[in-house]
Design a protein that fits this description.
204 residues; alpha/beta; four-stranded parallel β-sheet; two-stranded antiparallel sheet; globular
Length: 204
């Protein structure tokens, strides 16, 4: 059976989660041994606020070795990014249909300090899959492989500067009257707007 290789992302985009769900019957692996690439969804999520698209960045500690493996990347708390991210999410989605419904699930991630970015991202992704009620599971890679001839490799394909790897049906968005439908935002945009209908939106 063909393997699926994915990066480990922060509040991943809709296309990422749709890829997970579309391949739920396959062997899915999350890449933990790659050299951490900057300016990607591994530490960045996009939401839609009153002023348009807003990118949220998780700062990471800078080390002398620029070739830090993903599993070893540590989150920096020199700036109050947790408070700022949570405030941004509240401001953007407080008027959405389901933000209050899920608020208590997400709040602890912005109150507790995780040491490693990978752990933080994976726990958030596991929560999202649980809230979606999706039948998805994964394993972590056991070593780094440059290519996967026997699999689908999404490590470089799911990227803010590239088109989404898959498309999904439009859904309600808080500020659609100002900006129209904005594609491939963080999965929380779908979840806070569509709630229990989110999974069916991803499956169409």
């Amino acid at each position: 059976m063909e393997k699926i290789i994915l990066p480990i992302c922060y509040l991943p985009p809709v296309s990422y989660v749709k890829t997970l769900i579309d391949h739920e019957s396959r062997d899915i692996f999350m890449e933990q041994y790659e050299h951490y690439p900057k300016q990607t969804y591994r530490s960045r999520a996009s939401i839609l606020g009153a002023n348009g698209k807003l990118n949220l960045y998780v700062p990471v500690q800078k080390g002398r070795d620029v070739h830090t493996r993903m599993k070893e990347v540590r989150i920096s708390y020199d700036e109050p990014w947790q408070r700022l991210h949570w405030l941004s999410l509240q401001t953007a989605y407080r008027s959405s249909a389901y933000f209050e419904y899920y608020e208590d699930d997400f709040a602890p991630f912005y109150q507790t300090k995780h040491t490693f970015l990978m752990d933080f991202n994976l726990e958030l992704t596991a929560l999202i899959v649980k809230l979606l009620k999706a039948n998805v599971s994964w394993a972590l890679t056991e070593s780094y492989q440059p290519t996967y001839p026997d699999g689908k490799d999404f490590r470089q394909r799911i990227h803010p500067k590239l088109p989404p790897v898959t498309s999904s049906m439009p859904y309600r968005q808080v500020f659609a009257d100002r900006f129209g439908f904005t594609t491939d935002l963080s999965i929380v945009d779908l979840l806070f707007n569509e709630g229990p209908q989110s999974l069916s939106k991803l499956q169409t």
